[in-house]
Structure formats: structure tokens, C-alpha cells
Amino acid sequence: MEPTEVETGTDRVKRGLAEMLKGGVIMDVVTSDEAKIAEEAGAVAVMALERVPSDIRKHGGVARMADPTKIEEIQAAVTIPVMAKCRIGHFAEASVLQALGVDYIDESEVLTPADDEHHVDKWAFTTPFVCGARNLGEALRRIGEGAAMIRTKGEAGTGNVVEAVRHMRTVTNELRALTTMDEAQLMSAARDHGAPFDLVREVASTGKLPVVNFAAGGIATPSDAALMMSLGVDGVFVGSGIFKSSGPEAYARAIVEATTFWNEPEVVAKVSRGLGEAMPGIEIDTLRDTERLAERGW
Amino acid sequence: MTTVGVLALQGDVREHLHTLESLGVAAAPVKTPDELGAIDALVIPGGESTTIGKMAVRFGLIEPLRRSIEDGLPTYGTCAGLILLAGAVTDGDQPLLGVLDVVARRNAFGRQNESFESALEVHGLEEPFHAVFIRAPWVEKVGADVEVLADIDEHPVMVRQGKILATSFHPELTGDARIHQLLIDLI
């Protein structure tokens, strides 16, 4: 039968892919071999990158979208969805990623921002976008621009989960506060959060974001993943945490298992045994302001 | 009370639980063999089929699932669920239950940019179903006992074999519970 009324790139289709990733782990990879390790471990998707965030920190300079050749190699190596990052506001990079057929575009603060005032108009794309947020207002601004998935910003490449925890708790607390407000209060809340009023009203009535919300930025161990899941995220991005650990295969697998069984400490304990060294961590207070990636974008 | 379980290793479990509850049955996530033993029907949700399959193997669920379904547990798989129920996939090597006599082609319509929604004629439903296809599979080959209930350009996207029902698409994302009702009718 020929299908009728066929539509691509709808909200439901864009947000729907993120729904399918729930309860899973999305892993940063820089080569097709790493992508295969991630898939074998049970990742639900991979993020194709030139360098993982901890190396971006070390390397300095301008961090950009990955080379299309690299993205294509990774697409050819795995059957799971492949995501890739563009710079904040860099709609030309985003267009290239869409043309390459990536499954999700991460408009990411981990790369050097291309526009200090504007994020990409994500409604203009067929490919869905995920964006980082430190609080509810930022999440709703990105959703207002068309983001189909949200993640905490955390502080990428530090192996330190404290910022991701802060961002998730902030979103949750701000959502909860909205659900207790009357109509008049909602308008002033919209002003305070700098968020679109219609979205503020919507989340005030539902008590949750209209899109899937993952944890990202600083997750380095199975327990970190379990912690974020217990704070109510829908799934987990792991950046440097896998391939900067002493045993990427074991870490990848253990983090996947802890994400599924986050509410069963016996399982998290079991999968955490004998993994070797986690990635080296960085205390957030030792970062200079210019090294704090979460401050990029608004 | 009738209880329908939703395999909860990964994927859009919550949407299936809500859809089932809207039909007045109890809905429960299933992660262990014990939980599997306490249900009257099962949904295998959308998600990443390789992830769900690997987790079912690692946590000792794959054999109990296979046995329960072979013993007649009414089961409905959506998208990744269809793949997991299948006897084989056209490409690659991944854990499958092999209880549904079909060969599935993963990501058959293409990548995310080709994901779509459309109206779909379904055998046995009076009105067309609004179907959401996300990096969806189709059925490449069907066995003799498999009935095709819907197709797109001759590619089966909904099939039934005995008490097993499978769709390439995601009714749980639309709020239309008619296909979940078909599962409950199989109990």
C-alpha cells in the first residue's frame, strides 16, 4: 500500500528518536574502532567527534565540527544512531551535518561558539537537535528554538559530575516551583527565566519538559550514571569517561549496565568491580572562567 | 486484574505503560525473570534493538523471554521489539529471540532524516492508523504462518503470528491505543 499524508522532520519524529534512546548511554567516539567498541558495549548511539572534551581542554585553540570523512567512517562502522556536534550558532556546520545524514545534531558548548548572541534556528532543519542547559530557562529557550532533546551541560572533560548534578537539580526544582504557580505568577516566572510564556505554561501544567532530558558533562563511572538516573534524567551521555579510562571496553559496558539498573545498587556494585582507573578528574574550582565550557551559550 | 508487562531494559517504556493504562489494564515494567512470570501479556518497546538484546543476554532474560513467548504469552513488539522477536535480520549479528518467523531489515527506510509519520491502512481496523516510523525496520521475508496486517509499498510493517504481534511503527507515540487493544484481545 502507498502511504498517504507522509511527513518527515516533524516534532513527533524528531522528539520520538530521543524517546527511543531513553534508558541508554550515548558515547563520544573519535574513530570507527571506538564506535564499534561503544556499540558492542551496548551504547544506544555514538557522538562522532574530532577530539573528546578532555583533549579539547588540553589542546586549546578553536574546536570545530568533525571532519566529514571521520563522520562517514563512523556511520559506516555501526548500525546505531550517529550524532555529531556543531558550534553554537554555526548553522552552516549544522547544514553540513544534516547533509551527511547524521541522526542528531548536538549544538554544543564543548566546541568554540561561532555566534555569541544567537543559537541555531533548529526549526529550519529536518535533522533533530540536542542542546545543553544549566537551568529551566535555558532548556525552554532551546526548545523554543526547536531543540528536540535537552541535556545538562555539566562541565565536559573534567570527569567531575558536580556540575551535571547542579544543572539537573536546578531544572527539577524550577519545574516543581512552576507547578505550584497561578497564571499571573507564570508570566513573571517566564520573565525571570527568560523563557517563552507558552512553554512555561505547558511545563507548569505537565510538570515535565516536553522533550527527553539526558545527563552530560563529567560522567566518569557507573555510579555517576546511576546518580544522574536517580535524579530523574532519561539517559546519559558519556564523553571522555569511556576512552580516557584505563579500560574503555569494561567502562563502556559497566556504565551501560549501571544506567539500566540504576535503582539496584547490587547490580551497580557488581558491574563496578575491577574496572581499573577512571579518567583523571579536575576540580571545578581550579578552572579559570575561560575554561568553563558550561558558560558558553545562554 | 489483567497485567501487561513492558520490557524495561531500555527504550520508550513509559509511553507503552501509559498507553496500556489508558485501556484499563495494569501495566508493569519487566526487568527480571520473576517480573516476567507475573504478567498476562508483554510489550517489547521501541528503543535500540542491539542494546536491549545485549542487556537481555547479560542479565539472563533472553531464555526466559523466549520460553514464555513460545509457551503462548501474548506479545507485541514495536520497532526494536519487532527486530528482537524476529528469526533473523538481513545485516549484522545481534541477539534475537527468534520467535517470529520473519527476517527484518533494520533502518530499512533510512536514517533519521528519512523518519516519517503517515496514515496507514491496517487490516482489522476500520479507520486508518496514524503511524510514526523512526529509523524503522520493515519485514523482508515472512514465514508461512505469518499474516501481514499492514504494508508500505509492499514491505510489511505490521504482522501477526499466533499470539505475537509486531509493528515497525510506534503507536505509543500517538495516543491511539487500538493496536495495544489487539494485544489485550489476544490474552
Write the layout of secondary structure elements.
The complex is a heterodimer of chains A (298) and B (187).
Chain A: E1 4-8, H1 11-21, E2 25-29, H2 32-41, E3 45-48, H3 53-59, H4 68-77, E4 82-87, H5 91-100, E5 104-108, E6 129-133, H6 136-144, E7 149-152, H7 162-179, H8 183-193, H9 197-206, E8 212-214, H10 222-230, E9 236-238, H11 240-243, H12 248-260, H13 265-272
Chain B: E1 3-7, H1 13-21, E2 26-30, H2 33-36, E3 41-44, H3 49-58, H4 62-70, E4 75-78, H5 80-85, E5 86-89, E6 100-105, E7 116-120, E8 129-133, E9 138-142, E10 147-152, E11 155-161, E12 164-167, H6 178-185
Summarize this, please?
The complex is a heterodimer of chains A (298) and B (187). With 298 residues, chain A is α/β, with parallel strands linked by helices.
Could you characterize what this model shows?
The complex is a heterodimer of chains A (298) and B (187). Chain A has 298 residues and is of the alpha/beta class. Helix content of chain A is 44%, strand content 13%. Chain A is built from 13 helices and nine strands. Chain A has helices at residues 11-21, 32-41, 53-59, 68-77, 91-100, 136-144, 162-179, 183-193, 197-206, 222-230, 240-243, 248-260, 265-272; strands at 4-8, 25-29, 45-48, 82-87, 104-108, 129-133, 149-152, 212-214, 236-238. An eight-stranded parallel beta sheet of chain A has the order 8-7-6-5-4-3-2-9, sandwiched between helices. Chain B has 187 residues and is an alpha/beta fold. Chain B has one domain: Class I glutamine amidotransferase (GATase) domain (Rossmann fold). In chain B, strand 10 and strand 11 form a beta hairpin. The chains are: A alpha/beta (298), B alpha/beta (187). Chains A and B meet through strand 1, helix 1 and helix 12 of A and helix 1, helix 3, strand 7 and strand 10 of B.
